[in-house]
Design a protein that fits this description.
The chain is of the alpha+beta class and 174 residues long. It folds into 2 domains: 42 residues; 125 residues, Chitinase A, domain 3. Helix content is 32%, strand content 25%. Strands 1, 2, 3, 4, 5, 6 and 7 form a 7-stranded antiparallel beta sheet that branches. The longest helix is centred in the first third of the chain and has 39 residues. The termini are far apart.
Length: 174
């Protein structure tokens, strides 16, 4: 056999082996990353709440964190960022419409820094896609609200919460 052909065969064998290892590596990466993507996309509303929400709010959009929202009034400007100081008016209700909390006086809004765990996680998440002046209906699943512990005596455990939220003011922050 000619030495050149032998070298070509060795080269082709090594190329196929390397390609096979590379393919296995990409397959491994794919298998590791798929559960993460699926976890982010899983439904966070309890089944009975999901049925109620999709029936009563069919036009609600879904954020990447599983919060549903409907834009009532559009604001303007840049979206809110972590660390921004926001002033918000809101009415918090359960799915049955019962109000459990509210701040509706424009002279005394709820003011806090976004992303500093001063409010439920759902608010920290949804505010970062809102703009000054936005007024939204926001449906927060239990795990992004008060979770399994609730917030006694106002909110019992595992409650989906519905907020009407209006961003009055944003001071760009830290």
């Amino acid at each position: 056999m000619y030495p050149q052909i032998k070298n070509i065969r060795v080269f082709v064998s090594l190329f196929v082996l390397a390609g096979s290892m590379l393919m296995r590596f990409f397959l491994f990466i794919l298998l590791v990353s798929v559960p993460t993507v699926l976890m982010a996309q899983r439904e966070k509303l309890p089944p009975e709440d999901y049925a109620w929400v999709t029936k009563n709010f069919p036009s609600a959009k879904k954020s990447n964190t599983g919060i549903r929202y409907i834009e009532i009034e559009k604001g303007s400007g840049e979206t809110i960022n972590r660390g921004d100081l926001v002033s918000v008016l809101y009415v918090g209700r359960f799915l049955d419409g019962e109000t459990f909390d509210q701040k509706i006086d424009p002279n005394e809004p709820l003011t806090f820094r976004v992303g500093r765990t001063k409010v439920i996680r759902g608010w920290d998440h949804i505010l970062q896609i809102m703009r000054p002046g936005d007024k939204w209906l926001v449906i927060v699943p239990p795990e992004l609200a008060y979770g399994t512990k609730g917030h006694p005596p106002l909110v019992s455990p595992n409650k989906t919460l519905v907020f009407t939220m209006q961003v009055l003011d944003v001071e760009r922050g830290e």
